[in-house]
């Protein structure tokens, strides 16, 4: 079986975030890191070259494959910031309606700017995601 390309590294999260050209995006990413650190009680770590992850757990697929993965994380992308939130977004519909401007994909919440979302709701979504992962690990 092929080895997972995205693995935790020892690269500096702060150095990576400081390379973000857009000042607003850079500031938003530092704020998201602060929120995720508060929720997970874990220091941020680089996962691959461009993902900032918090905490870790053993992810188990139905196929039997297992790997180490972050509890939650995010990645600044050209078009938006991708937040990696585990669990089912359909079950979080009420919260997402209150969040503000966003889109979702499988396991990802995409936002352009923090000023476009309700920070309290964002923190609650991150917290629920982490709790979902922790429950599934038991």
Topology of helices and strands:
Elements: H1 13-17, H2 23-40, E1 44-47, E2 51-54, E3 57-60, E4 66-69, E5 72-76, E6 81-84, H3 93-99, E7 103-105, E8 108-111, H4 119-136
Antiparallel strand pairs: 1-2, 2-5, 3-4, 5-6, 6-8, 7-8
Descriptive overview:
- The strands form two sheets. Strands 1-2-5-6-8-7 form a six-stranded antiparallel β-sheet.
- By secondary structure, it is of the alpha+beta class.
- Helix 2 crosses helix 4 (119-136).
- It has a single domain (13-136), classed as Aspartate Aminotransferase, domain 1, CATH 3.90.1150.
- The chain is built from four helices and eight strands.
- It has helices at residues 13-17, 23-40, 93-99, 119-136, and strands at residues 44-47, 51-54, 57-60, 66-69, 72-76, 81-84, 103-105, 108-111.
Question: Which strand order do you get reading across the main beta sheet?
Answer: 1-2-5-6-8-7
Shape: globular
> What is the CATH architecture annotation?
Alpha-Beta Complex
What's the tally of helices?
Answer: 4
Largest sheet: 6 strands, antiparallel
CATH topology: Aspartate Aminotransferase, domain 1
Beta strand %: 15-25%
- Radius of gyration using CA atoms only: 15 Å
**Distance between the ends:** 26 Å
Task: Provide tags for this entry.
138 residues, alpha+beta, Aspartate Aminotransferase, domain 1, six-stranded antiparallel beta sheet, 4 helices, 23% strand
In short:
The chain has helices spanning 13-17, 23-40, 93-99, 119-136, and strands at residues 44-47, 51-54, 57-60, 66-69, 72-76, 81-84, 103-105, 108-111. It has 138 residues and is an alpha+beta fold. A hairpin with a 2-residue loop joins β7 and β8.
